[in-house]
Amino acid sequence: MLEGKFDEASLLKKIVDSIKDSVKLCNFNCTEHGITVQAVDDSRVLLVSLLVGQSAFSEYRCDRDITLGIDLESFSKIIKCGNNEDYLTLLAEDSPDNVMTIFEDKKKERVSEYSLKLMDIDSEFLKIDDMDYDTVINMPSAEFAKIVRDLKNLSESLTIIVTKDSVKFTSEGESGTGSVVLKPFTDMDKPEESVKVALSMPVNLTFGLKYLGDIIKATGLSGVITIKLADKTPALFEYKLDAGGYLRFYLAPKFDEDD
Amino acid sequence: MLEGKFDEASLLKKIVDSIKDSVKLCNFNCTEHGITVQAVDDSRVLLVSLLVGQSAFSEYRCDRDITLGIDLESFSKIIKCGNNEDYLTLLAEDSPDNVMTIFEDKKKERVSEYSLKLMDIDSEFLKIDDMDYDTVINMPSAEFAKIVRDLKNLSESLTIIVTKDSVKFTSEGESGTGSVVLKPFTDMDKPEESVKVALSMPVNLTFGLKYLGDIIKATGLSGVITIKLADKTPALFEYKLDAGGYLRFYLAPKFDEDD
DNA sequence: CCCGAGTGGT
DNA sequence: ACCACTCGGG
Question: Which keywords fit this entry according to its UniProt record (chains A, B) (predicted)?
Fold first, then answer.
């Protein structure tokens, strides 16, 4: 039996909103340590890997491993039925047909319950190797989101060029080109505002803005995004959950014609 | 001759917006006491009853009873031509072909006038009996609206079950079910937030969510909705106008198959 | 009274 | 999935 209670419904709402535009159906794998999801988007280009750690719940109990095959669109509708600050509890039996979502107002004068029918979804559970990356960037997630949104107007690809002392995002399109250059710096007062670059080798990689546009839907999950890059290797875009866990997106770079 | 002046055009705008999705054409019956409207929606299931009391106007005069047959869609377009905080005056002759809508900026630097052609609309004026109801619920109108919006995602019907110490709203659909349970309580500081139940007999009634969806368009008119229920009797959903008057919707419950 | 967020419609 | 409108907050 699974019983997981969030102190704020908004956390689960943000998580689901962060992935539901990439992935329509996915399995929630519940274990004693928390809930994980792994899924690829419809075009099989973007890999989503979520861990909601046990510590992200105010109460959590999962005696035996349980898989919940969920239609994220329906689930998202249910989650919107709560208020952000409500308690949210997920309940499921050991071999469930349904998952129950319960909202409780903190004044306890209102309780709403929604039952969602589960689906059988087959998915290979992908083993993701810990890679060595040439470059790791930490930056404010909102700033990254704005760059992606802005440059999406110009073309379909975004190139990220990292050198020892700068990160450059550029996009070239029909009607013009655009670029944003960031210098690493540390804001002592607001560390979240810092831009940090750890680099063992310069990189120059190009990504599809369509997928980056999906990735930045997760901006609300964390003030900081970590981007790990290496030549000819899927890039890792990571949002850490304050409460414990992460949402990671793996996206292969576009290859140059002369490769 | 009718001359009715609203201190804020927004009041009339809210009123018209509250009913124009239920009713396309209706008679505005103007008497010395104010303006009333009674109409049924196209499917003749939902009855709308409006009273804009004389006190809701900053100036009001109506020597003889006048009937204004109005196309609400056109009227709504006219009303949107003013600013919310403008004065709005309705003018009509004793046997009018037109009604004039006049907006005045409060600084008196702008006056706009719109004339709307009237229509001949036949409508039985329905005598609505004062019913005895088994249950009266008072609750925040916004909360009722959210429940209707949320449960509308699940199915086409909403069941309201009232007992001595709870009000339960439930809906069952293909992909899942949902329910919201409210406990009556009184908020001393914000009485509008209270949920009150006066019950002489428990009720269990089912309504079409389509119509409830129309009813909650009136949410802006009042912070509180009063719902009066009795078995096999049209339910009354009432929004009181702060300035004097009310907007009431009468909706027959769906009947069980075994009735 | 303006702005941002949430919601409903195309 | 995107855009426009409406509503609530500053």
Answer: DNA replication, DNA-binding, Nucleus
Residue B123 (CA) to nucleotide D9 (C1'), in angstroms, measures 43
Distance CA A229, CA A102 (A): 40
Which tokens in the block code for residue B63? 């020597």
Other C-beta atoms lying within 10 Å of the C-beta of residue B129: 6
pLDDT tens, position by position, B199-239: 999 999 999 999 999 999 999 999 999 999 999 999 999 99
pTM above 0.90, yes or no: yes
Residue B146 has a CB neighbour count (10 Å cut-off) of 18
> What is the Cα B184 distance to its own chain's centre?
24
Q: Is the pLDDT of residue B100 over 80?
A: yes
Provide φ and ψ at B227, rounded to 5°.
-115, 125
pLDDT in tens, A42-100: 888 899 999 999 999 999 999 999 999 999 999 999 999 999 889 999 999 999 999 99
Q: How much of chain B exceeds pLDDT 70, in percent?
A: 98
Q: Is A108 a residue whose pLDDT tops 80? A: no
Residue B181 distance to chain A (closest CA, Å): 5
How many CA within 13 A on the CB side of residue B80?
7
- Strand D footprint, Cβ within 7 Å: A 21, 213; B 17, 142, 219-220
> Where are the alpha helices (H) located in chain B, listed in sequence order?
9-19, 72-79, 141-152, 209-215
Place of tokens 């009634």: B205
Tally Cβ neighbours within 10 Å of residue B205.
23
Size of interface A-B (CB pairs under 8 A): 44
Residue B258: the pLDDT is 55
Distances (CA, A) of B74 to A46, B51, B79, B140, B217: 50, 21, 9, 31, 18
d(CA B248, CA B259): 27
At A244, is the secondary structure helix, strand, or coil? Answer: coil
**Of B258, B99, B235, the residue nearest B169 (C-alpha):** B235
Question: What is the rounded distance in angstroms from the CA atom of residue A28 to the CA atom of residue A254?
Answer: 30
C-alpha to C-alpha distance for B59 and B258, rounded to whole angstroms: 54
Task: Provide, as residue numbers in chain A, all residues whose Cβ is less than 8 Å from the Cβ of B182.
Answer: 109-110
For chain D, which bases have at least one atom within 7 A of a protein Cβ? 1-2, 6-8
Place of tokens 């956390």: A11
Mutate to test the interface with B, among A111, A116, A118 (most CBs of B within 10 A): A111
C-alpha span between A170 and A165 (Å, rounded): 16
Q: Are B50 and B60 in contact (CB under 8 A)?
A: no
Do the chains contact at B178 and A114, CB–CB below 8 Å?
yes
The three-point CA angle A255-A256-A258 to 5° equals 125
Q: Is B176 left (phi over 0), alpha (psi -120 to 50) or beta?
A: left
Q: Does residue A176 register a pLDDT over 90? A: no
